[in-house]
């Protein structure tokens, strides 16, 4: 049992937890009741309590009775004095009652807050004054400025009288000599619901108005009252001062009830309360403090260090220092302690501390923190896993997210088919795809290792049942130990003791396993963590399956693209060529390039780009590349070839738009160039493609001034061919826009960067390609990049022979003889007969059907090339003569003797050519 200092008797026996009457502001209300009791001392309860005389209030009452008796005895002969006294008392009571009634009347407090209180309160005050038969009712603010008065001229002036106690919440009843004579006035506060004083009300009445007998017996009353008043005032002042000092204006009943309330609350709360004096003596400890600290029954009045408390608790309570929610371990409890000094506002020196048992709260907070961390893990997995469409990278991201936050080591094992983008066969082996751990020396299977799990292992069980499996104690799991006795023994010896294995499921397909290993925490995985692991893997499985499907689609597209791109460059002697092709990061695209040998030792270079990615772009690229192959066989100039290609793209767009099965080709570009090693001239035309770069033998880099035609497919717009003469050893650089343009830079910046890279490149085409791409590393392009570098060669005069032929059939013999001599000089005597026969037929046809000038040219390149030029645009055609025909067998013989033959047109005529392989 705990007793407050200075209290006699035992603490209230009210049962703990019983609700007390909820009386707001008990001290204030008690003081008000005490004042009302003193004003109405005729109440039987107060009189009876006072008559007992055992309390301070009783003593005061006895003293007042004595004084009154003395006054009565002194005024026996003067009845008027008694009447005057009664009149004054009646005036006090009436003025106080009227003031309190008006202050508490409905609407008074609201009127004080109105913009014009006088307009509202003046009529009411006058009506109340008349009804209550008082001389005035004055309403004022807390500064004493009147809002009402019987004389309107005095509204707004300062109130005459004492208002300070009323401003502080008390009541003032005083007798003053006013302009209307001797009067009694009472001043009471008008309070807001929170107890704040918002205004004052004063009511007054003259003693003359109360009773006329007082005036008639005034001399006698004044004399007797003077003597009695002097004695009563002295005694009352003495006792009242003592009473106010000791009881703060409270009566015995109020003090008793207040103490009982405070005592009940003190011992009913679920917080320990301890009050310690400035000398370290325990002054008070409630029941909860006794329970939490296990204090002895006689703890009060003993010093804190002598109570057997833990040193940290004892030091804190004895020090009196300020503490806020300091957590201390007491036995098996976690106590949150708050401590403050008690002398902050003039109170007694010492300190008060509250103790709260936070053990359960801390446990709940811990569980909430665990739940929050798990939700955070799942959120991070949703954000951080699957950032790319790469199966291996997705598995690595899953391991990175879980390591340290959920498991100490994480391994991801997937079927090889999944890595290839295919659906796995459940009977296949798995491959360790990703590993993550707090350390790198764990004796687990390394990445890349192919694994077959034995039937007794938890991994095999998980694959079979498609459910996660928890193995809490690996050292006691014979099925897992049988997987690889030597390695599993090393794993257990390393400290890994618990395992969760979860299948990676995508619908009905199992893609692999994720293994979570624990070593640092002594506790094994539990069922809640098993559910978390299943949810974590389920979220990652979606990303892994998406990456697998993308890998499959990407592989199909890449296979298609590779099948459509040239696998090797054709043999030719006009150019030294190197190339690079970089697929886009997002997938395959529509960029392509080609090297096409043409007649007369010429070579065509082509680079094109179909904007977009995916199978449609790759398929369209293949169609365009095939078309370029076919069109180049016609030996057309670059601008005419682009016209045909433009018409083809337009037809493709029209067919696919009508069919609705595909998207139109938007943004297809192409650059077509033909290089002639004999003349060292290069004819180029481009359709919406970036201009080619030329590196001259001295290292100067220029971009060829080739007119920029519209992209393919627009139709109706012309293309122009530009011709350049390239010195031997020049490098022609063709590329697609992925090399010089992306989202972070425009094409002008890219061209300048390309110029700088080409200026520092080596002389060979291979070095040029390597230098250009090295400037873009590390780099994963957002668009395909095709780069083609060709270094020019020239076919020297020692390998070319030309003859002008007159339009005379007899000149054919001279041509045969000259050609025979040239072939002998080249060491090609074995080809003399067939070459003379071919030239005889071609020259004869030119003389017979063509027009002058006629030119014969023979070139020794990878093949022996014979060309006959004439100015006619009539193209010969092969026909099969009958047995009775006298002619028509010339071209047939040429086709039989030559490996290839054909016709191409020039600005001034045509060329008929034939090629024979060299022996």
From TrEMBL:
**One annotated Gene Ontology cellular component of this protein:** plasma membrane
Q: Where are the transmembrane segments?
A: 60-81
Where is there biased composition of kind Low complexity? 1-12
The UniProt entry, under InterPro entries, shows: Bact_Sigma-Reg, GAF, GAF-like_dom_sf, HATPase_C_sf, HATPase_dom, PAS-like_dom_sf, PPM-type-like_dom_sf, PPM-type_phosphatase-like_dom
Checking CDD domains in the record gives:
HATPase_RsbW-like (cd16936)
Give the source's domain of life in one word: Bacteria
What biological processes does GO assign it?
Answer: phosphorelay signal transduction system
Q: Where is this region: Disordered?
A: 1-43
Q: Does the keyword Mitochondrion apply?
A: no
Q: How does it sit in the membrane?
A: Multi-pass membrane protein
Q: Where is the GAF domain?
A: 386-554
Query: Listed GO molecular functions?
Result: ATP binding; kinase activity; phosphatase activity
Q: Where is the composition biased (Basic and acidic residues)?
A: 32-41
SUPFAM superfamilies the UniProt entry points to = ATPase domain of HSP90 chaperone/DNA topoisomerase II/histidine kinase, GAF domain-like, PP2C-like, PYP-like sensor domain (PAS domain), Sensory domain-like
Specify one Pfam family: SpoIIE
Keyword Transferase attributed: yes
Locations listed in the record: Cell membrane
- Keyword terms, alphabetized: ATP-binding, Cell membrane, Hydrolase, Kinase, Membrane, Nucleotide-binding, Phosphoprotein, Transferase, Transmembrane, Transmembrane helix, Two-component regulatory system
The record places domain PPM-type phosphatase at 572-792
PANTHER family in UniProt: STAGE II SPORULATION PROTEIN E, STAGE II SPORULATION PROTEIN E-RELATED
Can you say what this protein is called?
Answer: Histidine kinase
